[in-house]
């Protein structure tokens, strides 16, 4: 199995690293096509595959093409790989908003995987939603194993659910950082410097996640465990409820899903 990753940016690089670390294939069977010469040098120094800038026999010999480029570059990439596609070859896209039908028309591929990873894939804590077309069970098992090298992988049964994955986990880290920043800013107002405030907030988030992961209680049950009648937590929750924050956050996620659909149509 020869894998060609087209695009050596953050997502392409992190996927390459994860594939090699998980020993999915040897490094001499992983190729990365990248136009930026400085990135090529960096990738080759890290020995996570063979990086190159000029289309060559590696395009012809690939069994799996991973499209890790910006959506606006899709047409140029289709042009490069289409001559080398035959029915057994797989095209996997991590391009946001690009539908399977567009990939099929552009590349003539019969086996297509559309994915939506998120930024924590860079640290192997990612969430990747994916849907396939034309793959057999063996192909699906391999693709699932490959995607799980960067975290968890969830196969969905409808392409529209990729828009939902985009809104939940794709955009999700931004929601977390937004809430973290709000608490950091409040901590600074209470007299802590930025480094102290950040340290407190990060440890609080990490500790809370570990509690949640290692115990059977729901979020609401944990809130009750932290809260006491007339106490500090209850006072904060009253403000959150006053502004209907849970509902507003939900509306934000739904708007993100709607925007994902709009971009897909465009």
If you had to describe this structure to a student in words, what would you say it looks like?
By secondary structure, this protein is of the alpha/beta class. It folds into two domains: 3-158, NAD(P)-binding Rossmann-like Domain (Rossmann fold), CATH 3.40.50.720; 172-265, ProC C-terminal domain-like (ProC C-terminal domain-like fold), CATH 1.10.3730. 54% of the residues lie in helices and 14% in strands. It has twelve helices and eight strands. The protein has helices at residues 10-21, 37-46, 57-61, 74-81, 100-107, 137-147, 160-170, 172-189, 194-213, 219-226, 232-242, 245-265; strands at residues 3-6, 30-33, 50-52, 64-67, 90-93, 111-116, 126-133, 151-155. The chain has an eight-stranded mixed sheet, with helices on both faces. Strand 1, helix 1 and strand 2 (30-33) form a beta-alpha-beta unit. The mean pLDDT is 94.
